[in-house]
Amino acid sequence: MSEEPKLAPTVGIIANPVSARDIRRVIANATSLQITDRANIVLRVLACLKASGIERVVMMPDNGGIRHHVRRGVERSRNLGEHEFPDLSYLDMTVTGTVDDTVRAADLMRQQGIAAIVVLGGDGTHRAVVSRSGDIPIAGISTGTNNAFPEHREPTITGLAVGLAVTGRVPEAVAYAPNKKLVVRINDQAAEIALVDVALVTERVVGARALWKPETFRELFVTFAEPEVIGMSAIAGLLEPVKRSEPGGLHVLLAPTEEAALTLNVPIAPGYMRPIGIARWQRLSAGKAHGPQITSGSIALDGERELSFSERDRVSVMLEENAFRTVNVAAVMDYAARHGLMRQAGQKERKRQVS
Amino acid sequence: MSKNPFPLDKQGLLEAYRTMRTIREFEERVHNEFAKGDIPGFVHLYAGEEASGTGIMMHLNDRDRIASTHRGHGHCIAKGVDVKEMMGEIYGKAMGSCRGKGGSMHIADLSKGMMGANGILGAGAPLACGAALAAKFRGDGGVGISFVGDGASNQGMFLESLNLAAVWNLPAIFVVENNGYAESTSREYAVAVDSYVDRAAGFGLPGVTVDGTDFFAVYEAAGEIIKRAREGGGPALLECKMIRFFGHFEGDQQTYRGKGEVEHIRANQDCIKLFADKVLDAGVIKRPELEAIDKEIVKLIDEAVITAKAAPLPTAKDLMTDVYVTY
Ligand SMILES: Cc1ncc(C[n+]2csc(CCOP(=O)(O)OP(=O)(O)O)c2C)c(N)n1
Ligand SMILES: [Mg+2]
């Protein structure tokens, strides 16, 4: 039997059509990125993947409109001879219009040995991808509300960096960065994860999901804490910054402002500054399970209430290091510049070589 | 007893349950009675969609006005219209909410702030703007709410109303009840803009999408939106993603629906079951308390049907009454 030729890398794209749609549009003037804008981001990423040598891209199908706009965009470009795109196909899966689609798509992409997944969404979308993507590196593009996890930059560059990374032109040690995550367990149920923060609040219902009532906040665990993000992790970020790249996280005990040792002004949603009562805080080290201080309430993963628990439940939260990989876009682009990866011989030089 | 973790006290939770169960029982019963051929005209049933109307209406009082759709029974019940008079109206009897001259698609009760079901798609939206304008002039903190289906949201009237509400900063709220179908046409095919939040943004209104099968998601989001509108925060759009249990109208063969679709949603996405599971699980309400309500409702709807069937029709003498109004 002849040896299989090594397959050229395929890149996956998971674009969530329903991120940035919750109540924070009303209470906090949060952004509501239009579907056509999301589709245009996909088109920009596709063009740059092609430019960096990617021939095949597979996408999550959706019924929120992104797929239709992308199809029209590709068709128009082909008619006009404007941009070149990789071959685009869609995963063969039933679309439910819920987060299950993202989870299923990440599962399929892992099974198909995709080289990297580009994710369009907020923190929740990225969490759903990472819950199934295993060792596949992901590259985040923020189209959600708080977006503490995906870095903020023009998606063109994200697409370019992913292409350069997965085609092997940038060494792995430079191209990919390890990340931390939080693992939440309730009784013997399957573990849930968070990429940025786990917040425990007194409200028992998941309800409208978003968090915007500080009087209900009781406890916070974060994987990293940046002072220039918004959302729950901003509380930790403004107390004691912790980098994505350093070991450990932060654990903060919160209290109603009248009972708190300290009050901190924090942007807990876009343009939404609130005083947050802090009881105390400590560094969070990896591998140690923590039980919550409150006996019933709900658990918000990356800013959205997802799980509720009562006195009868056993809950634990644990930080894990080296949990998954991301494409280190800044490092890839820096490497590309320093090593001349985007350079080509000029016309003059080419003519000289021919003659 | 465990502490109540919900945004409503026990009485409020029981009231929500009672409203949703009343709508469900009413609709299931109309479904059965319609099959017997006793009910004139068309009926469109709200079964499966109860959490939306109920979660919104629990924030309203009689001074707040709503404009409903062709699928209006649930909105009427949640807004407090008398159930027996509604049933009488559906049977076309003189005892009905509109003296038997409106039928299912025209049930109205202004004393409850219910401006009417509406057979014309999208026509509720300008009415809600009018109610909201009146409330703004009076300065009484009232709101006007228009319900509209995913299909009807393509009507010009609806879009013009979004514009008007934004320009005049009206306390108007547009609830898009997105059940995925307009008759047999899928939303995906027929709505060019892909998200109602995008559509609202196009008119300068904030928009929010919630899971319309989750009572608490609707209740919480609607609460914020209505509170803001009352205090001068202006109009907003709320999309409730939901599920229709029955066909578009009674008699619809539903050949456009996937095999097993309805069975699956009845088993897994029944908003009333989901609500009951939550409140029972939290230990705030005990099962016998819900069962007692179920029993009362069955009795109420049974009486409503018996009364409606036995009631007299309007007579020829009534032909010209309640038809034209002089102001
Ligand atoms: C102006 C107008 N056009 C067409 C119709 C016929 N019609 C009645 S209901 C319906 C579909 C409505 O779909 P949707 O708005 O999604 O509401 P749903 O029935 O799903 O609750 C149509 C086309 C009508 N009643 N009024
Ligand atoms: Mg519909």
Describe it for me?
- The complex is a heterodimer of chains A (355) and B (327).
- With 355 residues, chain A is of the alpha+beta class.
- The mean pLDDT of chain A is 92.
- Chain A has helices at 24-28, 35-51, 66-80, 99-111, 123-133, 155-166, 172-175, 233-239, 329-338, 347-354, and strands spanning 10-15, 56-59, 87-90, 116-121, 138-142, 176-186, 192-194, 197-201, 217-222, 249-255, 262-269, 272-284, 289-290, 297-301, 304-309, 315-327.
- With 327 residues, chain B is α/β, with parallel strands linked by helices.
- Chain B has helices at residues 10-35, 50-57, 73-78, 83-90, 124-138, 156-167, 187-190, 196-202, 215-230, 261-268, 271-281, 287-310; strands spanning 65-67, 144-149, 172-178, 181-182, 185-186, 207-211, 236-241.
- In chain B, helix 9 (215-230) links the parallel strand 6 and strand 7 (236-241).
- The model of chain B has no long low-confidence stretch (mean pLDDT 94).
- Chains A and B meet through helix 1 and helix 3 of A and helix 8, strand 6 and helix 9 of B.
- The structure holds thiamine diphosphate (TPP) and magnesium ion (MG).
- Thiamine diphosphate is lined by residues 44, 70-71, 119-121, 149-152, 179, 181-183, 248 of chain B.
